[in-house]
Amino acid sequence: MPGRRGAVVSGMPSFTELDLVLRTPRLVLAPVAPADAVDMWPYVSDPKLPRFMIWEAHRDRGETAAFIDRQGVQLAEGTSITWALRENGALCGLMGLHGILRILGAWRVDRAELGYWLAPPFHGRGLATEAGGAVLAFAYGPLGLHKVTVGCITENDASRRVIEKLGFRLLGEQREHMHRHGRWWGHLTYEMLVGDWRAMQSAGSPATLPDR
What we know:
Layout: E1 22-23, E2 28-31, H1 37-44, H2 61-77, E3 81-87, E4 90-104, E5 107-118, H3 127-140, E6 147-153, H4 157-166, E7 169-180, E8 183-193, H5 194-202
Parallel strand pairs: 5-6
Antiparallel strand pairs: 1-2, 2-3, 3-4, 4-5, 6-8, 7-8
């Protein structure tokens, strides 16, 4: 797997060697593709969706197509993978492992950051937690990562619940971390080690199971 500036770690898999389609009891997760743009557009063009996120609502369909193209480039580079989440064929959100890094200077790091959004019609049913369980199983299993980090705006209660259900450990709050919508917002930072994930699997953690 390429790391910083193309560094390769012996024995680590590349995306071309892995089955990138993930399945859960209710969802199919497949790498986002150009055909997904049509179903994404109604959600990513809604200014309310990215209120707590780092990106702005898309202003035209070309912006959505360009976003998907970038995900394809990063997938080919081995630095990121973004999945489209579908329930019974309907697109309900995206989830990704971003900034995948194997080598940082003299350090071996094997880490990535989890990111996601779920469309409003699919909120409140545990789908993000279900998808997150599958993505973490992929990250710590076939992909061989050692650590996954994730963060959210302090006031984003829904995202915070997903993160904590998945079993991430809170590192702390970065106060007044970013400015948007006329004010400064705090940011919560979490992490999970492969050992934490394995311990949860041994204990039968409900984080990987759908909410009922």
